Every structure is written in structure tokens, then in C-alpha cells.
Amino acid sequence: MERSFPFISAMVNNGSVNYDHGKDGRSSELGGCSAEIRNREHDTYLAIRYSKGRLTVMIDVEDKNEWKECIDIGGVRLPTGYFFGASAATGDLSDNHDIISMKLDQLMVEHTPEEENLDWTKIEPSVSLLKSPKDNIDDPTGNFRGTPLTGWKVFLLLLCALLGIVVCAVVGAVVFQKRQERNKRFY
């Protein structure tokens, strides 16, 4: 995944996962987007919404009151009774992030009877994903790990293997034939 900075990313953590500053948090990242927020003559906006197990982050960097989706992750479970906070890590570059204001609203949503009986203060932060955030780690060769073999990749892999076997068989037959001819001359 090619990314440019500044980059907004999301992670869910129960306190057991460290943020890897060397890889910009890719090992624990659930999603993200680039946001061109530097040197703007106007305010930029970020909207974070968590409702019914879905975490959505939208941005408005053009000050047009047009929201662009940045992150949309389902299966998020967050406990109640915690505080909201914001932080920024700049890595090698120094940057200044001013939070002018924060507006927090409690959403009123209908819950299932199961959800009504849960003690939401005791829920451990978690995400049920189809893929692990660990799949976001770059391997040492610089390739992006976690991309499955598609039909074309499997076809090309099998074609190359078949061609390799045919080449080996032809070379083996030619070498065998040459040895047979050399053995016939000495009789």
C-alpha cells in the first residue's frame, strides 16, 4: 500500500500491543488514509463515529462541508467508561497539530436484548476481522505480505513450473542420447 504523509490510521488495542514507530504502526493498523492537511488557510475537520460495532472516520480537508470516507471498520468492540483523547506521532518530520475544538455527542441507538444485558464497562477492546492486522507488515524484500494468490498468479506459477519440467526433460533426453551415441562408438 503506497502512502503519503500525513496519514490517519486506526488501531484498537487492549494495552497488549505496542505501536511500532519504525514502521508507522502498520503491524497494528486496521485502516487509514492520507490527508493533505499541511499549510492550509482554513480549518480541516475530522469526524469519528462509533456506533453498533462500526468505527467510521471521515475527513473534510477542503472546508467545503463535503465528507470523504477515510476509515470504515466493522466488528469493533469498545468498552464504555473511558476517556476520549487525541495524539500525534510525527516520526522523522516535525509537525504542529492544533486541535481547536472537539465536539462529542452520545448516539442513542437501539440494542438487541443480548446487548442490553452486557456490562459494556467490562468489554475488552477488540476487532473481529477477516484478516489480521499483522498482515500489514512489510516483509524484508519490500513486498507487501498478505496478498493471496489470485487465479492469474496460480496459473502463471503452474505454467512456469510446467515449462521448467519440460526444459529439464528435454535437456535430460539430449544428454542421455549423446551418452548413448558415445557408448556405441567404442564397441
Give an overview in words.
The structure is a single chain. The protein is built from two helices and seven strands; from the N terminus they run E-E-E-E-E-E-H-E-H. The protein is α+β, with helices and mostly antiparallel strands. A three-stranded antiparallel sheet has the order 3-4-5, with no helix packed on it. It has a two-stranded antiparallel ribbon with strand order 1-2.
Please give a quick description of this structure:
By secondary structure, the chain is of the alpha+beta class.
Give the arrangement of secondary structure elements.
Blueprint (H helix, E strand, L loop, with lengths): L6 E4 L20 E4 L10 E7 L2 E7 L7 E7 L1 E2 L35 H5 L8 E2 L23 H35 L2
Antiparallel strand pairs: 1-2, 3-4, 4-5, 6-7
Shape: elongated
Strand neighbour order, sheet with most strands? 3-4-5
The major β-sheet equals: 3 strands, antiparallel
User: Count of DSSP E strands?
Assistant: 7
Distance between the termini: 67 Å
Given the structure, what is the number of helices?
Answer: 2
User: Which regions have little confidence, pLDDT < 50, spanning 5+ residues?
Assistant: 138-146
Name the helix and strand elements from N-terminus to C-terminus, one letter apiece: EEEEEEHEH
What is the average per-residue confidence, as pLDDT, rounded to a whole number? 79
Q: Helical residue percent?
A: 10-25%
**CA gyration radius, whole angstroms:** 27 Å
β-strand amount: 15-25%
Secondary structure class reads alpha+beta
